[in-house]
Design goal:
The protein has helices at residues 2-12, 14-17, 21-36, 40-45, 55-63, 74-85, 91-103, 113-124; strands at residues 48-49, 52-53, 66-67, 70-71. It has 125 residues and is mainly alpha-helical.
Length: 125
């Protein structure tokens, strides 16, 4: 299940992060190898705090796994960290648009957008 999720995300964010075909192939290979890696459960157990899994700590440890002197999952670690910091909704931007629309009404059309409206938005946010 995680495998399919990660592959879906690879294709979804491919253009955003400008990954080459070689990078995508390497990430796919790392996802498959990680799925088969039995040490992941032990790493996950070591990344629990108060019963919750610390995802940043988990992916830092996964990215540091070495085999034959080479990092095995460095590319997939970068992908995971990007996914962890990617907003999962656009609610915050929608709130800001809503605030702008409430402040920039027809009866307030003489507000200077660069100074007055900007100042109002800074105070409200």
């Amino acid at each position: 299940m995680v495998h399919n999720f990660v592959i879906f995300r690879l294709h979804r964010y491919r253009k955003v992060y400008k990954w080459s075909d070689d990078q995508l192939d390497q990430m796919r290979d790392e996802v498959v190898a990680l799925k088969l890696d039995k040490s992941l459960d032990d790493i996950a157990d070591g990344c629990r705090e108060d019963g919750c899994l610390n995802m940043f700590q988990l992916w830092e440890k996964v990215g540091s796994i070495m085999k034959a002197g080479k990092a095995c999952y460095s590319t997939i670690k970068c992908l995971a960290l990007l996914l962890l910091v990617t907003p999962h909704s656009n609610a915050q931007s929608e709130r800001i648009f809503s605030m702008v629309n409430k402040n920039l009404r027809a009866d307030r059309s003489c507000l200077d957008k660069d100074t007055t409206l900007n100042s109002i938005m800074i105070i409200k946010t």
